[in-house]
Input
Amino acid sequence: MFTYAVTILFSEALDSESIKVTLCSVAPMKHCVSQRKTGLQRRNQRNASRGVRGFGRNQSGASAVEFALIALPLMFLLLGILQVGVVFFANFSLEDAAERGARLVRTGQAQSQGFDAAKFKSEVCKYLIAPVSCAGLKLDIRSYSNFGGAAADLTDPLDSSGNMKPNFSYDPGVGGDVVIVRAFYELGLAAELPALISLGNMGNGSRLLVATVAFRNEPFN
Output
């Protein structure tokens, strides 16, 4: 007669508990222990497999992770778009003011009314629109006998260190002269943004805006 020992093993399931009954012979105990180990190993493998599959299917928090991945590039993109827009608007304001000021020289109004550099600047400042202000405006007016000489005399307004050169002139010329009117403005917004997206072209990180108007004076003499 053989005596059997009844061993009840519990294994967890996803929705309920299942009971597995294994009859082990008392004599071959090693065989019973090996069966128990094999059953535990299979259960652990099933639990591990379900855990991996469940992790792969779990999408909770996916939106937060995706936003964290694109938040920094998106922020740099928005700041870059904002900076480009401000630079273009400020440059448009400077060009419009320079063209209106140049008309005073071309028609002889600045010469007939005895404008000096300060008076001419005050007239140009009337047409500036924010973010360009009169305080940072620099004007350079030079006259030549022909356009060839004017083109040869045009130089970079920045020195080797990226700073603006201080040599500005006011010479509106007379009737029939070729005149070059250049307006400069240092836009400081670029210095406040990261270098990665900065449009700065000066040594201090600011953006130098330049507006140039070339024309021949009317024969007003």
Summary: The longest strand covers residues 178-187.
